[in-house]
């Protein structure tokens, strides 16, 4: 049986919970998580090469971006609940995660609106590199955490960074000397970034390197979505329904991810983090489906999407308020509210994917 790009993508999605679980464990499991993350990152490159070789498919166009977003959610959210060893510093603070995920939610919503209006949609060079930079950052952050768990002066992160930098550098040298073609911009960019982070870690140490890394990834992610905002403003300015669309962007692109992410680390009850990760990934998956449908001029029901998003904001936001104010401590009100918000995301995803299955499965 021939292995296709879609099979590799599905395998990546199915295996994603493994590093998600391991990232909450100790040193031995974190080493396994680092290997798993590297392998999953490689599969992203592999299925991309296979898709270009065999030709794109409708299902692949849906699954690949969803897999990338799930990877980021599963791998980054656990860092918001881990303290960097030897410090009182959260590895990836929630207030940095929120703008990073809001960017993805907002761009997904903007892309749907632009596709439905046949409006031009630019993708900046930075946006094209965004996922690769984020995936690389996950491995780097994890390497720093592992090194800090061993010793504040551990050189493990530097060895990981230097080894990672050596791969694109050797590839560039190969292409410049005996390779069939010149190295691309992505290879040069990744070689430069990896080398820079290796130098920062060697000279700046753990605290400086983790701080620069998480701030840089957040800033690059947010800035990479700027072109979409400009194009959407041009497409909606003065047009009928523009105000309604703007309200939906705020609700779906900003309030929903913020409401789900705020309760991170607030509840000790086992499974709360899993609910947050599940809700975020399902919302991103549904947004990816909306993008695909919009390219075929099919729009998800506007009123239902607004009601669904409002319910999620009220329920998940309520879980944050209850936990923050320590209301009714003897009753799991916050856990119940967060569970209900996640259930709304689950039901919405099931309905959306089942109702429109003919669109993405018809070409199989």
List the helices and strands and how they pair.
Layout: H1 5-15, H2 17-22, H3 27-54, H4 58-76, H5 94-116, H6 125-150, H7 156-177, H8 185-223, H9 226-236, H10 242-261, H11 272-295, H12 302-325, H13 333-355, H14 357-361
Helix pairs in contact: 1-3, 1-4, 3-4, 3-6, 4-6, 4-11, 5-8, 5-9, 5-10, 5-11, 6-7, 6-8, 7-8, 10-12, 11-13, 12-13
List keywords for this structure.
364 residues, mainly alpha, globular
Number of strands: 0
Strand portion, in percent?
Answer: under 5%
Average pLDDT works out at 83
Number of helices: 14
Morphology call? globular
User: What structural class should be given to the helix and strand makeup?
Assistant: mainly alpha
The topology string of helices and strands comes to: HHHHHHHHHHHHHH
Radius of gyration using CA atoms only: 21 Å
Largest sheet: none
Which parts are unreliable, with pLDDT below 50 for 5 consecutive residues or more? none
**Helix fraction by DSSP (H/I, runs of at least 4):** over 70%
Termini Cα gap: 15 Å
Overview of the molecule:
By secondary structure, this protein is mostly helical. The chain has a domain of 122 residues. 77% of the residues lie in helices and 0% in strands. The protein has 14 helices and no strands. The radius of gyration is 21 Å and the shape is globular. The mean pLDDT is 83.
